[in-house]
Amino acid sequence: MKQSARGDRKQILGGLDLGGTKIQAVLLDAHGTVLSQTRRPTPQEGGPAAIIEALNATLVEVGRLAELDPERLAGVGVGAPGAVDPNTGTLLQAGNLPGWNEPYPLAQELSKRAKVPVFLGNDVQVAVAAESRLGAGKDFRSMLGVWWGTGVGGGLIINGQRWTGRGAAGEIGHIVVRRGGARCSCGRRGCMEAYAGRGAMERMARKAVKHGYSTRLFDLMEAKGKDRLTSGIWARALDKGDALAEKLVHRALRMLGAGIASAVNLLDVEAVIIGGGLGTRLGQPYVDRIRTAMQPHLFVPQRPPELRLSGLGELSGAIGAALLADPTSRRD
Amino acid sequence: MKQSARGDRKQILGGLDLGGTKIQAVLLDAHGTVLSQTRRPTPQEGGPAAIIEALNATLVEVGRLAELDPERLAGVGVGAPGAVDPNTGTLLQAGNLPGWNEPYPLAQELSKRAKVPVFLGNDVQVAVAAESRLGAGKDFRSMLGVWWGTGVGGGLIINGQRWTGRGAAGEIGHIVVRRGGARCSCGRRGCMEAYAGRGAMERMARKAVKHGYSTRLFDLMEAKGKDRLTSGIWARALDKGDALAEKLVHRALRMLGAGIASAVNLLDVEAVIIGGGLGTRLGQPYVDRIRTAMQPHLFVPQRPPELRLSGLGELSGAIGAALLADPTSRRD
Known about the structure:
Two copies of one chain form a homodimer.
Chain A (H helix, E strand, L loop, with lengths): L12 E6 L3 E7 L5 E8 L5 H19 L9 E6 L2 E3 L4 E4 L12 H9 L3 E5 H12 L8 E6 L3 E7 L2 E3 L29 H4 L1 H13 L6 H7 L7 H9 L3 H25 L3 E5 H7 L1 H11 L11 E4 L6 H9 L8
Parallel strand pairs in A: 1-4, 4-7, 8-11, 11-12
Antiparallel strand pairs in A: 1-2, 2-3, 5-6, 8-9, 9-10
Helix pairs in contact in A: 1-2, 3-11, 5-8, 7-9, 8-10
């Protein structure tokens, strides 16, 4: 990022990480420092129009916290789940977002509303780019980010630059680790995500309970007033030595090991960064277990890549979104 | 490649593709045209020194065919199997080459002998680069080459440039397609090569015969005076409708489909080029079958990559080696 005086508000960027349940916002200065942050729930009704309103309100709020009008920002980036067209700022497909059933010119509409230039990127791709620029990937010219959450997403840095292919690169969750294996939420079989995604793990846990397994996972869920197994619930169950949780996490780790090692055999990157809701929540001990699970599959086992936990944690997506608006880092 | 007068011999490059059984040589002019070609067997005794002698003799011979002294070449490239250090021209590890048990300064020794600058690269990586520059990959800025032979090798072009990672990128044969599955020649389990490599297919065929399967594969082998199942023998058996050959090739294709689709999900490249001994020999109908086998595993199935057969065929390795010596295409 270009150096500038700390007070130069023209260089301040806004970042919005649009998720299925919440919108996370940050303001970022030219040094990559987070000036303010806030979050609010993603509207579950009203479709794209309601979401644009909520994005704008979150932006106004994160600006207010830093005493800054959004119109005075150099630009705003949005990281969104699903397929994006970065050139037109259109969100093509976002199964995760309530009521979002067809392509929608997100950047253009938010730009009209907020009166500031808006740039759009895929949420995981920008989070990984943020780790490369400001986080755990800073020391590397090539890296693979693996975002372990409800699904397993990914992003690539090749030669110091984000590699997005024809727009959809990084789908490491859909590397096939067992041809003909478990059904994935994408409809296909044997994908890594079908074993390692938190969504798949919850489905397997529910099935196991039906088959008579005992577990504290769902008691913990009810005690927390949740209707799904969050990362925190998995972490708690593991802490308590719950056998089913350990069994399912162990299987997830084995599959992450095989899939990530496959990617490393293909790309020979310097580093792998583990992020995402579950990755961040379970933290370093589980990064170490992924390292162990990768080892038997590495083609050059004597020289494994560096394996690191995300350095920016749950802000990586919003920070990466802000970097989309940085004129010194944009491609094209 | 820089344009120059056709007669400018300073721009002529030599390429040597060093394999376990043969050395293939070409001379290449500045337009990428092959001026002459020849091959000779790889010495099976005498180790690195004998191989350097044979490389030099092949170079002298390919020069003679074009009435050109090797010393007058602009440079010579060597593509070698295994791990190379391109900066020092050292072949680090080449299990495939008889008597080659430790790192050896191949480029330096051949350069001394031939009195011409010598550059070293990995055989499959340079073959894929040749396809990108002059062959089936010319139209694409990103591609994956899959070299289907005794093993399954690969190479990557990202942003129009060869991507070699930390030196070993492209090992698509060692993507895990069935965790815990068949034993691979690399010692690990479930690699794509453990099902799709010609070596693995031959081992499975021998095992099937032991278990009472009938096949014409080994009769064809004996009739040809061979001691292993060459690509030509597989092609012949398939032509004759041999059930075991079809079964094993079908399994190989399924695994190639899963493994290549995994790589495409990760990299979202524009094109996949199929080469290698078996790929080239079986040709377009089998490229089409790989396409069909990939389809169920593609994360963006409505937009598959272009899938093409190698355009340079069995010369791709030697042409790619020659391009290593082209000053306009060298990195670093």
